[in-house]
């Protein structure tokens, strides 16, 4: 079968279209999927560059791609929720990947039924971004009615879904965006839009319950100051903190190194009386089913910037990596 293969860590030329072995028969608890579409995510560039080597033990060469939508080709022993012919969407295993291919293997518990109202291309845009938004706002943030939430880069792939999830939960939502993305984020429900090119968000945002940080760096430091005492900043950019490394089973050297890298951030958070949490999203078919129900009810919709044919997957990655995309960039496989 055809797939986009990462043979070595590096830049765009480290990925190539190649003939690779078919994934074979489904094992216990697995489904083999004919992939119809996959989406591009920032984690794809980080994996390609080797930035996540301390956290992901990948054995190269490996097929890239983190989320997909497709049709079940075969089910393995003990699979109960799916059968051949079912339409699904999923975030694949972190140590297996494989979405940028004609077929992929998915754990049953990582897949959900494709929302009926979405095409395969639309569905492929949801898993990683949707799960990231849900876990940041619900699992870590405990977002509910009346809470105030700041979502950075609201016009991005994660941000567009995070705004909608936060509004579904009853929160007041502020977001940062450019003038070009302002109408989009308002259409998704944002209550306050800050033009990051002409305004400082801390001049307009005060005493918030949660900041969802998709940018990192100086933006993250400034964001800690807009939280109310006891508020939380959920970070998906990193570097991860020592607490996350410990939970992930990283060795002592990595835990110490990450602790040293984040000591200024930790000190500032303690001084301000706020909390910090690094999120490395986990696959969850159960949460995909919840998101799918909201999508079919008309409460959520994925935003797609552009769909590329499979042969142009490298162009899709480059477009997403440029930072110019509003919403998700999707690769049509079939």
Structure description:
This protein has 334 residues and is of the alpha/beta class. It folds into two domains: 2-125 and 302-332, Medium-chain alcohol dehydrogenases, catalytic domain (Quinone Oxidoreductase, Chain A, domain 1, Alpha-Beta Complex), CATH 3.90.180; 129-278, Rossmann fold (3-Layer(aba) Sandwich). It contains eleven helices and 16 strands. The protein has helices spanning 42-49, 120-124, 127-140, 157-168, 179-187, 217-224, 242-247, 252-261, 263-272, 285-296, 313-321, and strands at residues 2-6, 15-19, 30-40, 62-63, 67-75, 87-91, 103-107, 111-113, 148-151, 172-177, 192-195, 208-213, 227-235, 275-278, 304-309, 328-332. The strands form three sheets. Strands 3, 5, 6, 7, 8, 15 and 16 form a seven-stranded mixed β-sheet that branches. A six-stranded parallel β-sheet has the order 11-10-9-12-13-14, sandwiched between helices. It has a three-stranded antiparallel β-sheet with strand order 2-1-4, with no helix packed on it. α4 (157-168) links the parallel β9 and β10. It is globular, with a radius of gyration of 19 Å.
């Amino acid at each position: 079968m055809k797939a986009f293969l990462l043979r070595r860590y590096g830049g765009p030329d480290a990925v190539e279209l190649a003939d690779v072995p078919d994934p074979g028969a489904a094992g216990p608890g697995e489904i083999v999927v004919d992939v119809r579409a996959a989406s591009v995510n920032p984690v794809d560039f980080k994996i390609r560059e080797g930035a996540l080597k301390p956290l992901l033990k990948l054995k190269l060469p490996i097929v890239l791609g983190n989320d997909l939508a497709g049709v079940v080709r075969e089910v393995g022993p003990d699979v109960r929720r799916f059968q051949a012919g079912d339409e699904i969407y999923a975030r694949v295993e972190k140590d297996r990947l494989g979405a940028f291919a004609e077929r992929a293997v998915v754990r049953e518990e990582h897949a959900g039924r494709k929302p009926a109202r979405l095409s395969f291309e639309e569905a492929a845009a949801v898993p990683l971004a949707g799960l990231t938004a849900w876990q940041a706002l619900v699992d870590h943030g405990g977002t509910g009615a009346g809470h105030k939430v700041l979502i950075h880069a609201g016009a991005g792939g994660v941000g567009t879904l995070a705004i909608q999830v936060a509004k579904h939960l009853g929160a007041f939502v502020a977001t940062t965006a450019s003038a070009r993305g302002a109408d989009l984020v308002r259409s998704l429900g944002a209550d306050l839009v800050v033009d990051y090119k002409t305004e400082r968000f801390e001049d307009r945002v005060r005493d918030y319950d949660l900041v969802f940080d998709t940018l990192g760096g100086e933006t993250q430091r400034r964001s800690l100051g807009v939280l109310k005492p006891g508020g939380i900043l959920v970070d998906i950019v990193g570097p991860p903190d020592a607490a996350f490394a410990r939970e992930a089973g990283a060795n002592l050297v990595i835990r110490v190194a990450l602790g040293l890298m984040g000591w200024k951030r930790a000190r500032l958070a303690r001084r301000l009386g706020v909390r910090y949490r690094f999120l490395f999203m986990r696959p969850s078919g159960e949460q995909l089913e919840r998101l799918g129900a909201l999508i079919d009810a008309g409460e959520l919709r994925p935003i797609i910037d552009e769909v590329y044919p499979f042969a142009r997957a490298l162009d899709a990655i480059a477009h997403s990596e440029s930072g110019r995309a509003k919403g998700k960039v999707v690769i049509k496989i079939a």
